[in-house]
Design brief:
The complex is a heterodimer of chains A (256) and B (257).
Chain A: H1 3-24, H2 36-48, H3 51-83, H4 85-98, H5 107-114, H6 118-142, H7 146-154, H8 159-196, H9 202-211, H10 215-243
Helix pairs in contact in A: 2-10, 3-4, 3-6, 3-8, 3-9, 5-6, 6-8, 7-8, 8-9, 8-10, 9-10
Chain B: H1 6-29, H2 41-52, H3 56-88, H4 90-103, H5 112-119, H6 123-147, H7 151-159, H8 164-201, H9 207-216, H10 220-248
Helix pairs in contact in B: 2-10, 3-4, 3-6, 3-8, 3-9, 5-6, 6-8, 8-9, 8-10, 9-10
Classes of the chains: A mainly alpha (256), B mainly alpha (257).
Chain lengths: 256, 257
């Protein structure tokens, strides 16, 4: 029982007590701050009906698909940009034009293009992931020590060897930074896209609950979103650290 | 590959962008793609001109800029104050850290429905979302900055006779400033995201509202124009903050290049 743990318990316990007291005496409008009991009961209802699981599954599926599309295109284009100056000169400016546009601003256009179903969300997530991955992959390939490439070449490695044994492993740390940043960014994008136009998913859950003035379900949904976002980020960090355990130095990402 | 000159590459970039625009325009002119799906560059520009008449576009731009300014300012100031307090007073830091850790896991966009319940559709809900976005990076970076101040410098200042006030103003605050600027930098991104999302989800004015309305009316050209505008405004905001940072941190090694 160290000091940190104790203060943590007291602090969070205090927050819940405050919530309990404030709602008991109705110091805050119960419309948007319902008592803890209501949120709990709402959670039990939603779980028993299987609804919560469906919304979580819908969100996670979109997230996964968007991540696959965005990261594959990002890695391929990023490597091509890093390896071939001509390709970089041609495609780089187009990427630079898209980059300052936040992923969220694509939502209306994505809804026009792909409708209200999964495809529009997958597009938006892949957009967010793509920008993060393409930038970091490119930086990774470019910041590779040229001595390594020359050494490999003088030791008789051909183009394919150099790519798979030197360039790719060398830029992996950057690529993973891109993945991590992409996941962090795109989770909020997903929630926003589901809020604005969707018929399922966690963003839809809280927006729908608001339409019916169910403050309890809004707070529940927010808690699930927070927990899920945290778990996803943590998972990516763990995978990242495990895959790159051979790499000693700490890394920083370039996002802007 | 190595022999290619800089001007040669610049030429390729120009040709690439120009070619892209021409191709894009051709798609529309030759009616290869439905303009409702992909309006031509010219249609996008025209939509901008049309919306500018009567000051409509300016009205939306001002609404968004005012919101982000209010929210970002409020969130940053609050965040820096809370962060400093947490860093300076140990008990406050320990009490608030777990709560900050929990709240920052919830992205600002997830607060939109609750904010609308709290403030209805009014300005309050938008400013709340933007403030929330800017708040947590400011708190966390400021708090980290205070804690990471080199204890040797603090001891040195103290042994040279600095009082509590002097220690704060002359040592802790300057040492924290680079961290604070990082917090503002990250916070600006979140605040901007919050602005767009809040305007998309429910507003009566602003650029986010404009592109959402364009979607309902199937005016894709308007949506494109709005997106470009959002990109430009975001770019200006980031550039502006960068300029502020370079000025505030003139003395710091990170700006000496």
């Amino acid at each position: 029982m160290n000091r940190k743990f104790v203060t943590r318990v007291i602090s969070i316990g205090g927050l819940f007590t405050l919530w309990f007291v404030v709602t008991k005496y109705q110091l805050v409008n119960p419309l948007f701050l319902p008592p803890p009991k209501d949120v709990w009961e709402g959670a039990v209802d939603l779980i028993q009906a299987g609804e919560l699981r469906e919304h979580i599954a819908a969100s996670l599926w979109r997230m996964f698909m968007g991540f696959v599309v965005g990261s594959v295109t990002g890695v391929v284009i990023g490597i091509l940009m890093g390896q071939f100056r001509l390709f970089h000169a041609a495609v780089g400016p187009l990427v630079e034009i898209i980059r300052p546009i936040p992923g969220l601003a694509w939502i209306p256009v994505a809804l026009i293009w792909f409708g209200i179903e999964d495809a529009s969300k997958v597009f938006i997530i892949s957009m967010g992931v793509f920008i993060a991955v393409v930038t970091n992959t490119f930086v990774g390939v470019r910041s590779l020590d040229p001595v390594l490439v020359r050494a490999a070449r003088s030791l008789g490695a051909n183009h394919r060897d150099i790519f798979f044994r030197v360039v790719l492993p060398g830029s992996l740390p950057y690529i993973f930074t891109g993945f991590r940043l992409g996941v962090q960014v795109s989770f909020a994008l997903l929630v926003a896209a589901e809020l604005v136009g969707s018929t399922s998913g966690l963003g839809f859950l809280i927006q729908d609950a608001r339409n019916y003035f169910r403050g309890d379900l809004v707070i529940l949904g927010m808690a699930v979103i927070g927990a899920l976002g945290f778990s996803i980020t943590r998972l990516v960090e763990i995978v990242d650290r495990w895959l790159l355990r051979w790499q000693p130095t700490s890394r920083e990402g370039t996002f802007y | 590959m190595q022999t290619q000159s800089v001007s040669g590459r610049l030429g390729i970039s120009t040709i690439s962008v120009a070619g892209f625009v021409v191709l894009w325009q051709l798609c529309a002119t030759l009616e290869l793609v439905d303009p409702l799906i992909l309006p031509s560059p010219w249609m996008t520009i025209q939509s901008g001109i049309r919306r500018s008449e009567g000051g409509e576009l300016l009205h939306h731009i001002i609404a968004s800029v005012v919101r982000i300014t209010e929210g970002f300012f409020l969130g940053s100031v609050l965040g820096i104050l809370i962060g400093l307090l947490m860093g300076q007073v140990r008990i406050i830091g320990e009490a608030l850290e777990p709560i900050v850790d929990i709240l920052r896991q919830i992205p600002e966009v997830a607060w939109i429905p609750l904010a609308i319940l709290m403030f209805q559709m009014g300005e309050g809900s938008k400013v709340f979302i933007i403030t929330y976005g800017a708040l947590f990076p400011a708190i966390i970076c400021t708090f980290d900055g205070v804690r990471m101040t080199d204890p040797a410098i603090i001891r040195a200042a103290r042994s040279l006779g600095a009082g509590r006030g002097q220690l704060f103003w002359r040592v802790t605050l300057p040492a924290t400033l680079p961290h604070i600027m990082t917090g503002l930098w990250i916070g600006l991104g979140y605040a901007f995201r919050g602005l767009i999302a809040a305007e998309l989800a429910g507003a009566q004015e602003g650029i986010g509202f404009m592109i959402m309305l364009a979607r309902e009316d199937n005016l894709t050209a308007d949506a494109f124009m709005g997106m470009a505008l959002i990109g430009v405004i975001g770019f200006i905001a980031i550039y502006g903050l960068g300029a502020v940072r370079n000025r505030v941190l003139r003395w710091h090694e990170s700006t000496q290049e």
